[in-house]
Amino acid sequence: MASGRRFGPARLRNTPPYVELLGVLRSEDHPDSNAPEAPQPTLERLDGLLASVRTAGLDVTVVISAARRPLPEGVELSAFRIVQEALSNTLRHAPGATARVELTYSQDALHLRILNSPGLQTAQPSPGAGHGVLGMRERAAMLGGELSAGTTPHGGYEVTALLPVPAAPTTRTDREQTA
Predict the structure, then answer these.
(1) Measured distance CA(60)–CA(137) in Å, rounded
(2) Sign (positive/negative) of CA torsion 121, 89, 48, 9?
(3) 157-164 and 109-116: which strand pairing?
(4) How far is the C-alpha of 135 from the C-alpha of 138, rounded, in Å?
């Protein structure tokens, strides 16, 4: 292995499933990859992300309201990364939980809601600096949006984000241009 990590049978048995997934989700964990040159993910890759977290043991459903459509690159990337981080946090902090991802397209915004139930098991101590929610907030804010995150009354966790979608430039007709 180029990274120098060893994953013997004993190591795999003692590794929580989310750790394997985090390695796949976080390109910075793979210094020998060409991740900076790779195309940035969009919501077109959401099905692949959901398949990955399902493989790691998370029962997740997705609900898309209104017609799914391409959005500006920044909105697509931020939406994908917010969903990715929220689901990673569910795997890390709420083992055995279920999750629901909701995407609601409106004319001027994309609304995200990622909700998870309480975990069924005690979470293992998690490696990392704990900046996931802050990073999600920063992604939303850089687009002029907002993000909230917190526990639900039933002991789960909810992340909601509003990501503004700039109005598409209008094309004027020849008649309008000469008037």
Answers:
(1) 22
(2) negative
(3) antiparallel
(4) 5
Q: Check residues 79 and 12 and name the one with the higher pLDDT.
A: 79
Name the residue with tokens 């909701």: 102
124: three-class secondary structure by DSSP: coil
pLDDT tens, 22-64? 444 544 444 555 555 678 999 999 999 999 999 999 999 999 9
- Alpha carbon 94 to its chain centroid, in Å, reads 16
How far, in Å, CA of 166 to CA of 21, rounded?
33
Task: For residue 141, count other CB atoms closer than 10 A to its CB.
Answer: 12
Cα separation of 57 and 54, whole Å? 5
Q: What is the model's pTM?
A: 0.75
Tokens of 24: 């796949």
Count of other CB atoms within 10 angstroms of residue 95: 18
Structural tokens at position 119? 């975990």
How far is Cα 130 from Cα 128, in angstroms, rounded to an integer? Answer: 6
- Phi, psi dihedrals of residue 87, rounded to the nearest 5°: -70, -35
Beta bridge partners of 99: 60, 116
The tokens describing 9, both together, are 């049978």
| pLDDT tens readout for residues 102-130 | 999 999 999 999 999 999 988 888 776 67
